[in-house]
Design a protein that fits this description.
The complex is a heterodimer of chains A (about 300) and B (about 375). With about 300 residues, chain A is mainly alpha-helical. Chain A has one domain: MetI-like (MetI-like fold, Orthogonal Bundle), CATH 1.10.3720.10. Helices cover about 75% and strands about 0% of the residues of chain A. Chain A contains 13 helices and no strands. By secondary structure, chain B is α/β, with parallel strands linked by helices. Chain B contains 14 helices and 16 strands. In chain B, strands 1, 2, 3, 6, 8, 9, 10, 11 and 16 form a nine-stranded mixed β-sheet that branches. A three-stranded mixed β-sheet of chain B has the order 7-12-13. The radius of gyration of chain B is 23 Å and the shape is globular. Chain B starts with a helix and ends with a helix. The chains are: A mainly alpha (about 300), B alpha/beta (about 375).
Chain lengths: ~300, ~375
């Protein structure tokens, strides 16, 4: 209501009372129509979400209840055979994401620190602009760039580490932006108090600014990680599928959940179809787990 | 206090990662040692390592079975095959990304897009020739989706016109004339073709061009030349298209048609309608002429073949390997894997899943070639 009243003139206070007692018909109709539209839009947005979750859950859950799903690979399992698990793909997805985070997080966090604490003038604007461009890069372009560098220029094999590199390009802008927002939230008074005590700038950042914003930064990292884990384009170009366990990032094809889904996609036979849904559900669960972890970290270590 | 948080997170993930890597297993069948029969199949010292292949989706099911059997006989070896299509497979082989390529059409010696495949393969193999070894014979089925029509006979001429959109209804008199007993519905013919570069497309257009040149004038190519209908990616794509569309018509490997339980047309090349079986298709492979030199075993199929009981549309998928020039450990793996692939038992097992076993004389030549790889 306040927005409605604020548009009226300050001297017209009696009008507000009149509006409250007897709302004009046109307004009340508009109000109920808009309420219905808003709720309908919300429900409409919810339909595909609930639908997807229900479909994947109902078709995929049976295999997940078997402990072999979590402990064995697909080695020697053909589309017409039941059995095997997703261990190789879960391992690949987690290892590739972990290595990606290991590279991306320091770069992204330091970039954000530069932008918030040091960056002034042209260079900072250029960096900020570049991060915006990076955000807009489609994942397939990042993958092709890494392919051009890794395979075409250096003649190296398509391995898990190349996938991680492509994921790094996708993760950096996400983490830079979220970290930047978190650092901006740190009150300036904290920094000034620190300076007043004679603490140098780097120590202020390391001991005051970062710890204050830490929970937000971790949440941002986990959300960024959850986003890159479901990325498929880099895997299609840089990560051939393997049905066996491969723990090496630099030697041979490494499976990942999205490529496992693709490998089983379109197969007409029931065992493969079951595995398709089960691996999709596994990927959703992994991403959900990371998202959940992000929220938990945010809750239990809120800025104090 | 607060600084310990990242430490805790890192520690937790490290423990989780260690726990995870410790407990996985590649043993999906439950037995820890290969059975006596399996170990007899693998002669010599135990091999280990990884062999990577990529290419034709036409042989995906066949090579999947072969890999499965080979790996249980050789637990130390991992063979990966990514079915990304013949074109992609050859490109990756030429780029040195994979150890062998699976392809539906042998390497070309003519220039195309500035690349002569045989020359590029020679460079990739350190100056040695790459050989095309036919290992899987897969009949191409003309598949249709017409509920209630169990038997459909087509001639190459009528099939060409259907795929070109010159015949648009299933109850067209030209189709009805070939199928006197059947009641054909008045539905539209919905053609599905491969949108990607495909050896299946190339072999199928070779067949149409070779057996009905008057109706199919386009040169055989990996890219579908027609404009009628809808393009779908890869074998799975066209199979799904036909499966989900009444009146659908497409061409695909027999194994995909079997898996999807699609209707398969009988083909009349002039000597009566022939149903597609392992035996009728095998006859076409046996009738093929050798087109390569020495151990390069390119086959030239006679698509206009009129022998009674021979199913004429057959696709031979090759494994492209370096005759020499791979690292010694890779060479041993390639030889061992291909020997298993070409063994009579393996070939016989392929018939069950929709492939035709190699005729004995072709198989003999393949084995000789494999032994000559060094």
């Amino acid at each position: 209501m306040s927005t409605v009243t604020s548009s009226t003139e300050p001297g017209a206070m009696p009008n507000v009372a009149a509006g409250l007692s007897g709302l004009s018909r046109g307004r009340s109709v508009t109000n109920s129509v808009m309420t219905v539209v808003v709720y309908a839009a919300f429900l409409l947005a919810l339909v595909p979400l609930a639908w997807i979750l229900w479909t994947v859950l109902s078709r995929g859950y049976t295999l997940l209840l078997d402990q072999n799903w979590w402990l064995t690979s697909q080695r020697g399992i053909t589309p017409r055979r039941v059995g095997g698990g997703a261990y190789h793909a879960i391992l690949g997805t987690l290892v590739q994401a972990a290595v990606c985070a290991l590279i991306a997080v320091p770069i992204a966090v330091f970039t954000a620190i530069y932008l918030v604490e040091y960056g002034r003038g042209k260079l900072a604007r250029a960096v900020s602009f570049m991060v915006d461009i990076l955000t807009g890069i489609p994942s397939i372009v990042a993958a092709l760039f890494i392919y051009a560098v890794w395979v075409t220029t250096f003649g190296l094999q398509r391995v898990g580490f190349a996938v991680s590199l492509a994921l790094v390009m996708l993760m950096i802008p996400v983490v830079v932006r979220s970290t930047e927002e978190m650092l901006k939230l740190v009150p300036n008074e904290l920094r000034e108090a620190s300076y007043a005590l004679g603490v140098p700038k780097w120590k202020t950042i390391a001991r005051i600014v970062i710890p204050t914003a830490l929970s937000g930064i971790i949440t941002g990292v986990l959300l960024g990680l959850a986003r890159v884990m479901g990325e498929t384009a880099p895997l299609l170009i840089l990560g051939p599928y393997s049905a066996s366990i491969n723990t090496s990032l630099v030697d041979g094809p490494m499976a990942a959940l999205p490529t496992m889904i693709k490998d089983n996609f379109g197969q007409a036979l029931q065992p493969a179809t079951d595995r398709l849904w089960a691996s999709a559900l596994t990927l959703i669960l992994l991403v959900l787990l990371l998202n959940g972890a992000g929220r938990v970290v945010a809750r239990f270590s809120a800025v104090r | 206090m607060k600084l310990t948080l990242p430490g805790r997170v890192a520690g937790l993930s490290l423990v989780a990662a260690l726990a995870l890597t410790a407990c996985g297993s590649d043993n999906t069948t439950g037995d820890s040692t290969p059975s006596a029969a399996d170990s007899a199949a693998s002669s010599g010292p135990a091999l280990s390592g990884t062999l990577n292949g990529e290419g034709s989706s036409a042989q995906k099911n066949a090579i999947g079975e072969v890999i499965s059997g080979y790996q249980s006989a050789n637990p130390g070896v991992t063979v990966n095959y990514n079915a990304t299509g013949s074109g992609a497979g050859i490109k990756q082989f030429l780029a040195g990304q994979v150890d062998f390529a699976g392809t539906d059409s042998a390497l070309k010696s003519e220039e195309k897009d500035g690349v002569v495949e045989t020359e590029a393969a020679k460079t990739r193999c350190g100056g040695n020739d790459a050989w095309n070894l036919p290992l899987v014979a897969g009949p191409i089925a003309i598949t249709y989706n017409l509920p209630g029509v169990d038997k459909l006979v087509l001639t190459p001429s009528v099939a060409s016109q259907m795929f070109l959109g010159k015949i648009t209804k299933w109850n067209d008199p030209k189709i009805a004339a070939l199928n006197s007993g059947a009641t054909l519905p008045a539905t539209d013919i919905k053609v599905f073709y491969r949108a990607d570069e495909s050896g299946t497309t190339e072999n199928f257009t070779k067949y149409l061009n070779g057996s009905a040149p008057a109706d199919w004038a386009a040169e055989p190519a990996k890219v579908w030349p027609g404009t009628t209908g809808e393009g779908r990616p890869q074998t799975d794509g066209v199979a799904q298209g036909v499966k989900s569309t009444e009146g659908g018509l497409s061409y695909m490997e027999w194994s995909a048609a079997k898996d999807n339980q699609l209707g398969v047309a009988q083909v009349d090349n002039g000597a009566g309608a022939v149903a597609l079986t392992g035996e009728t298709a095998g006859k076409a492979v046996a009738a093929a002429a050798a087109a390569g030199e020495g151990n390069d075993l390119k086959l030239k199929l006679d698509y206009a073949v009129k022998d009674a009981g021979t199913y004429p549309i057959v696709l031979v998928t090759y494994e492209v390997v370096c005759s020499k020039g791979l690292a010694a450990d890779k060479t041993a793996l390639v030889k061992s894997f291909l020997t298993y692939f070409a063994s009579p038992d393996t070939q016989k097992g392929l018939e069950e899943i929709g492939y035709a076993p190699l005729p004995e004389d072709v198989r003999g030549k393949v084995v000789t070639a494999i032994n000559a790889i060094s």
